[in-house]
Write a structure and sequence with these properties.
Layout lengths: L2 H27 L3 H33 L7 H15 L10 E5 L6 E4 L3 E5 H6 L3 H16 L2 H6 L11 H5 L10 H15 L3 H17 L6 H10 L5 H6 L3 H14 L11 H11 L5
Bound molecules: zinc ion.
């Protein structure tokens, strides 16, 4: 073979070997289905951890503003009992719900991301049945389940193969980094001043009605709570952060009619009525 032809052959051979090596390298970087599922699961659980972290910090700030009610262990345990009954319908087994009473005459209830739910003493004094309490707690569970608030305050992120440098630096623990206090403050502003918007409030009223029904309560609880608190005066924060009461009543009545649900409260079973009265007798003083 001529020397030139020999060099050419050698060059072609080198190119083939190089192409093969590149091929092998690129094959090894292709993500398998299992890798992808693992990565998506890791991102999902990191998102849940972030949601819990934000919710916990918001809850702590809320408790700095309104003290926790501890006057009656019976009442506190009763709220937890009814709350956990409703939370079984939540469809989010990764969320551990937490229920507490705030010691304020203001009529309101709050949910922070991740399942921290608070009902005020003023609201409990307004309620007249366990199904009304179930509806109030169900409304807040609905906000958590649908991540109504968290979707509004969390940074938008992409689930892609390209991990950002910030994410890598956070060693996989969180995607929020230094922005967490800003996110917590935005959440509190929504909770106490701006509200989540009519659409999400109507959705939470509807969710509460369905969770209550699925838990064995009459579906009329949410409607009767909204009607009842619309007649009270101590609802300054609630009125500021929720749609007008006549709008909520009309929307919920329409939803119930469309779904064939009875809007009239039936007589309550005696046992349920008596445990409600027993649990809240000291709170009503
Ligand atoms: Zn709400």
């Amino acid at each position: 073979m001529f020397p030139k032809a020999k060099n050419l052959c050698r060059a072609v051979l080198c190119l083939i070997v190089l192409a093969m090596l590149l091929g092998i390298t690129s094959c090894s970087s292709v993500e398998t289905l299992s890798d992808r599922q693992d990565r998506e699961q890791e991102i999902l659980s990191r998102e849940v951890k972030d949601e819990l972290m934000v919710g916990r910090q918001m809850a702590a700030k809320l408790l700095g503003r309104f003290p926790m009610y501890t006057g009656s262990t019976e009442a506190v345990e009763y709220v937890k009992l009814v709350g956990h009954t409703l939370a079984r319908q939540s469809g989010r087994p990764e969320v551990k719900f937490y229920f507490a009473i705030l010691d304020t005459p203001d009529i309101n209830a709050f949910a922070t991301p991740g399942g921290y739910i608070f009902v005020t003493k003023g609201l409990l004094q307004t309620l007249r049945s366990e199904s009304e309490l179930a509806a109030v707690l169900g409304h807040e569970i609905g906000h958590v389940n649908e991540k109504h608030m968290y979707k509004m305050i969390a940074p938008k992120k992409q689930v892609s193969a390209n991990e950002s440098i910030a994410r890598m630096l956070s060693r996989g623990n969180s995607d929020l980094g230094a922005s967490i206090s800003q996110i917590v403050n935005s959440g509190l502003k929504l909770l106490l001043e701006e509200g989540l918007g009519s659409e999400k409030e109507h959705a939470a009223d509807e969710a509460a009605t369905l969770y209550a029904l699925a838990s064995g309560y009459p579906p009329s609880g949410m409607l009767s709570v909204v009607k009842k608190i619309s007649e009270k005066n101590k609802t300054e924060t609630l009125a500021k952060t929720h749609p007008p009461f006549p709008e909520r009543i009309a929307s919920l009545e329409l939803f119930m009619r469309q779904n064939g649900l009875n809007t009239q409260p039936p007589p309550l079973p005696t046992v349920v009525a008596s445990r409600f009265n027993q649990a809240f007798k000291s709170v009503s003083n």
